[in-house]
Amino acid sequence: MLQKFKGYALNKLKEEKGQGMVEYALIIGLVAIVVIAVLVLLGPAISAKFQDIINALQ
Predict the structure, then answer these.
(1) Whole-angstrom distance, CA of residue 20 vs CA of residue 36
(2) Mind telling me which residue stretches traverse the membrane in this protein (predicted)?
(3) Which phi and psi angles does 13 have, rounded to 5°?
(4) Within a domain: 27
(5) How many domains does the chain have?
(6) CA dihedral (43, 44, 45, 51) positive or negative
């Protein structure tokens, strides 16, 4: 019985089905962090450009 459990546990440890999903989640998280950082840094400049456009249209 112990031998069967050991074989089952080792088999489960070798499976890597979820590895791809975890990698995709990490990539999506990294992209989200980069997008947020860019928006925080460029937010005031973008807002100023939109305000210039609004002022020009009035």
Answers:
(1) 24
(2) 21-42
(3) -70, -30
(4) yes
(5) 1
(6) positive
Residue 31 maps to a domain: yes
Specify the pTM: 0.55
Chain length of the chain: 58
Q: What is the pLDDT along the chain (58 residues), one digit of tens a residue?
A: 777 777 776 676 666 666 777 889 999 999 999 999 999 999 999 999 999 999 999 8
Measure the N-to-C terminal CA separation of the chain; round to a whole number of Å. Answer: 82
Alpha-carbon Rg for the chain, nearest whole angstrom, is 25
- Take residue 21 and report the two structure tokens written for it: 């999903």
Six token digits for residue 42: 């460029």
